[in-house]
C-alpha cells in the first residue's frame, strides 16, 4: 500500500473579475494514484467546458473559465485525509 500524499503547497485565495479565468494550484508531496478532488462549496468539480482540471506530476491545477458571480465561494482540494481551501 502506497504512503498517503500530503499537500505541501496549499491553495491561495484568488480574486478575479467576471469573465476572467480563476486559477487555483496545489502541490502534493509526491505523485499519487489516490483520488484527488476539487470542490466549489460542497459540489465536486469535473473537467468540462467550464472547469479545467490538470495534473502535472505533483502539481494539481483547477482553472475556472470565465467566472460569474455564481462561481463565488470556497474552493477546496482534497486528497486522502488532507484538504486545502481558498
Automatic annotation (TrEMBL):
UniProt keyword annotation of Phosphoprotein present: yes
SUPFAM superfamilies noted in UniProt: Immunoglobulin
Highest taxon in the source lineage: Eukaryota
Main location: cytoplasm
Places the protein is found: Cytoplasm
Name of the protein this chain belongs to: OBSCN protein
Organism the protein comes from: Circaetus pectoralis (black-chested snake-eagle)
Lineage: Eukaryota, Metazoa, Chordata, Craniata, Vertebrata
Pfam families: I-set (PF07679)
Amino acid at each position: 500500500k502506497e504512503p498517503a500524499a500530503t499537500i505541501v503547497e496549499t491553495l491561495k485565495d484568488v480574486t478575479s473579475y467576471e469573465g476572467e479565468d480563476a486559477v487555483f494550484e496545489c502541490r502534493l508531496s509526491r505523485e499519487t494514484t489516490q483520488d484527488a478532488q476539487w470542490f466549489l462549496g460542497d459540489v465536486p468539480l469535473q473537467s468540462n467546458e467550464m472547469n479545467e482540471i490538470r495534473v502535472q506530476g505533483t502539481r494539481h491545477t483547477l482553472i475556472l473559465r470565465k467566472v460569474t458571480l455564481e462561481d463565488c465561494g470556497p474552493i477546496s482540494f482534497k486528497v486522502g485525509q488532507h484538504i486545502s481551501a481558498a
